[in-house]
Amino acid sequence: MPTKNIETVLLIVAHPDDETLWAGGAILLHPEWKCFVISTCRGGDAERAHRFRKALEILKADGAMADLDDGPDQIPLSPQELESTILDLLPSTPFDLLITHHPKGEYTHHLRHEEVSKAVVDLWNEGKIAARNLWTFAYQDADGAYFPEAMKDAGILILLPLEIWNQKYQIITQTYGFAAVSWEAKACPKTEAFNQIHKAKPFEITTF
Length: 208
Prior knowledge:
There is one protein chain. It is built from 6 helices and 9 strands; from the N terminus they run βαβαβαβαββββααβ. It has a single domain, classed as LmbE-like (Rossmann fold, 3-Layer(aba) Sandwich), CATH 3.40.50. It has a 7-stranded mixed β-sheet with strand order 3-2-1-4-5-9-8. The protein is about 35% helix and about 25% strand. It is α/β, with parallel strands linked by helices.
């Protein structure tokens, strides 16, 4: 795991719980990291926002939330509005590592994950997010055939120790309050996966 010289980490996700589902184990494995988490949606949901803050306390991270539309219709967001929202929440300090969603998301299909990925990669490429390294989550679900699992060809694979996975699972089920039979609890990965981006390239979001 290429974590040498990483002290500060910026994690930008679409929803509160994404930070735990897809990267919570990596954060728990590195208590020395100083993490800041941005969630672009659900800031106006008082209960979800409260749970997000509690999750960050356990992860020993700071963070901020926006309240962009996340309704069931998933109407595409304005790229300009999304980028502006992210920039408004950014701390002024540079980071060693930036982590965000995979360009195609982590499962089939959530437009907000894809939109956040594109916005973050574009901002990083343009030098508007100051970070030395960029990782994207690397999960797949074969078009919904199974729960998301680590891509076997991901550049960074982290098999979580049972104790760490249990902590992560407890954040999902106890802190966020998802039942054991929920999608979130069943999907909670025991192996976390990331791809390191060396030179971001433009990509298109596919809408359905």
